[in-house]
From TrEMBL, chains A, B:
SMART domains: Iso_dh (SM01329). The record marks Y139, K187 as: Important for catalysis. NAD(+) binds at G74, P75, K76, W77, D78, Q79, V80, A81, V82, H83, L84, R85, P86, E87. This is 3-isopropylmalate dehydrogenase. Catalyzes the oxidation of 3-carboxy-2-hydroxy-4-methylpentanoate (3-isopropylmalate) to 3-carboxy-4-methyl-2-oxopentanoate. The product decarboxylates to 4-methyl-2 oxopentanoate.
């Protein structure tokens, strides 16, 4: 398997090393052969090539079986022109590779739940998979421009029925192998695109009679994620709603630094990245939490390579570390032992077999 | 002062009666003269006139000094064609009257904080005013239509610089008389409209040197509202972001049924409504919580009539009731006394003078 590593900026490089050694250990144990090639993206690529997504990186990714991404961005590039910003690299790679389905599991770790801003009794049984459409909507719709001598502006929320169908299919398939409940989120009382979305969901629902479907308005969903998160199983929504709701959901468990994400397309190729950012303030200090990146590598094994057993083993090892009290500086565990990036990675390795 | 009452649907009628008697008591105490005229909107108007916003209602509102709205919508009208739905009445009245600024205060009541899904230490000092642009953006932008034989769809996020300027001015003015901190929320790393928004905020900031401004991405704001709500003072954002974030924020205090909202324009005319919905399941039972409606009437006195003292008196009376342990069925107070809509209203009246 050809795996492309895009460490990106800030703590990206440190945590990528952790993911790599964990993958190497798993490959050794199960007799897999993974090859790794590292390329530049984001601010790192701006510094080296003058563009956040160099042609060479695109080509490498196009030939890859899967991609691991650290994180992109940082204050260093804040003054760069918009179309050359580090985030453009991320948007560009999603779009170029057609990674239309962003999967964001939100599930707390028992040892960390006490750190949640939400009361423990409300959050403890939550296990949500948010599926966000990633290559359409307001992110890429045209026109997106100033008008009337700069005195007006438009952006366009644009979708084809086909783009809706494939993400909604993905959501039904995911619900089918989980708890068979799908919440489709839209703003159908205002947006025409949401009304088409609802129609497509209704049509597709006929193909998945074993899955129950409910429609929810995005504002209502933003409330219910806080008041009753355990009522959700799979949530599916368009790009921008998904951006907001998945980030909202990510803080519920009290361990943002732990959460992985997957951006995939139908043939299984995918890009995997932790939900947290580049954390420029702690970059290079060896104290970053590598677990979100390691868990992203586990998602890669599951979703892109179909290696369920290997993925579960990594996830169990991570959980073991927390149960043993090991945590990085961003986390708190009662009577726990604070460790750095490297020690945390070593603990995961120890718990692997 | 001419006040138009639009009770609307569900519990709207019951709680409107409560607001009216409280206003009458205040008018009596302070020697004001308020006249009330009631008109139909939403499902109620659909049943009576076949349209959610009858011409007669529009005209009455156009001549009013202020408008009180209960709530609109309910399952009864779910099958009605989209452009005739109860919510259209609400969107129509906002747009027709040019009520561009939606003000949503989010502040908990000490007696109710324990009911928050958020840990008390996180939420207790929060006092946020969310200012949402209400007549632009994706809600009204054109085109909003199906294309390519129904196989594609677009909605348009459209703003003029002027529409941005007036809401941003409103936000700076509000911050100035509060804690002088403004958070402007956008998605400037993706949307051209957000980049213009940021420019306008930067320009306006020069006119309000006493107010500190920060820019925040909408996804980051959705997180921070949960992890650190007390870091906010005034938040200003465009229509749809404001819809999502203000509803998200409304559940933080644990007392959605208590929250008022104001939708105003520059000359002081405004529409005031509670944040909660029509609650069709308890409509007509005399158990609805009238406090959100009563507090909306207080906002009307403050924002539309400049009657600060009168507004504060109502707010204090409501707080007194809670401190005395009185609560409706939607709330819980330890060792409290559960009462119905009418008794709750009577308790507010008792606490008034
Ligand atoms: C960096 C930004 C453009 C991006 C997005 O909005 O998609 C990020 O917030 C994310 O969710 O991955
Ligand atoms: C009913 C609906 C159209 C409305 C909106 O989205 O503005 C509501 O959610 C609100 O916030 O008042």
């Amino acid at each position: 398997k050809q795996i492309i590593l895009l460490p990106g900026d800030g703590i990206g490089r440190e945590i990528m090393d952790s993911a790599k050694v964990v993958l190497q250990a798993v490959a050794h144990e199960y007799g897999h052969s993974f090859t790794f090639h590292q390329h530049a993206i984001g601010g790192d690529a701006i510094d080296q090539y003058g563009t956040p997504l160099p042609e060479e990186t695109i080509q490498a990714c196009q030939n890859a079986d899967a991609i691991l991404l650290g994180a992109v961005g940082g204050p260093k590039w804040d003054q760069v022109a918009v179309h050359l910003r580090p985030e453009r690299g991320l948007l560009g790679i999603r779009k170029t590779l057609g990674l239309f389905a962003n999967l964001r599991p939100v599930k707390g770790f028992q040892a960390l739940l006490h750190a949640s801003p939400i009361k423990e009794e409300i959050i403890q049984d939550s296990d949500i998979l948010i599926i966000r459409e990633l290559t359409g909507g307001l992110y890429f719709g045209q026109p997106s421009e100033r008008r009337d001598n700069g005195n007006a502006v438009v952006d366009t929320l644009s979708y084809t029925r086909e783009e809706m169908e494939r993400i909604i299919d993905k959501a039904f398939e995911s619900a089918r192998i989980r708890n068979k409940h799908l919440t489709s989120v839209d703003k159908a009382n205002v947006l025409e695109s949401s009304r088409l979305w609802r129609e497509v969901v209704e049509e597709k629902a006929k193909d998945y009679p074993d899955v129950t479907v409910e429609h929810m308005l995005v504002d209502a969903c933003a409330m219910k994620l806080i008041t009753n998160p355990s009522a959700f199983d799979v949530i599916v929504t368009e790009n921008l709603f998904g951006d907001i709701l998945s980030d909202e959901a990510s803080v519920l468990t009290g361990s943002l630094g732990m959460l992985p994400s997957a951006s995939v397309r139908s043939d299984g190729v995918g890009l995997y990245e932790p939900v947290h950012g580049t954390a420029p303030d702690i970059a290079g200090k060896g104290i970053a939490n590598p677990l979100g990146m390691i868990l992203s590598a586990a998602l890669m094994l599951r979703f892109s390579f179909g290696m369920e057993e290997e993925a579960s083993e990594i996830e169990k090892a991570v959980n073991e570390c927390l149960e043993q009290g090991y945590h990085t500086a961003d986390l708190r565990i009662k009577d726990g032992i604070q460790v750095g990036t490297k020690e945390m990675t070593d603990k995961v390795l120890e718990n692997l077999t």
